[in-house]
Amino acid sequence: MNNTHSRRGWLRQLTAGMAGLLIAENAIAKAPFTLPFNEAKAFISPTDPIKITKLEIIPVHTLRTIFVKLHTDVGIIGLGEGTVEGRIATTMAAIKELEKYLIGKDPRRVAHHWQAIYRHAFYRGGVVLTSALSAVDIAMWDIKGKALGVPIYELLGGPTRDRVRLYGQAGDPEGAKKVVAEGYQSMKISVTYSRGRLSRMVENPDFIQGVVENIAAIREAIGPKIDMGIELHGDHSPQTSMMIVKALEEFLPWFYEEPIQFQNLPLMAEMAKKTHIPFATGERMVTKWQFRELLNLGAASILQPDVTHCGGITELKAISSLAEAYYAAMLPHAKEGIIGAVASLHVVASIPNLMAHEWPSLQAAPKDGVERSAFGKSYIKKPLVMGSNGHIEIIGNIDKPGLGVELDENLIDNERGVEEWEFPEMWDSFDGSVLDH
Question: What is the pTM of this model?
Answer without folding.
Answer: 0.91
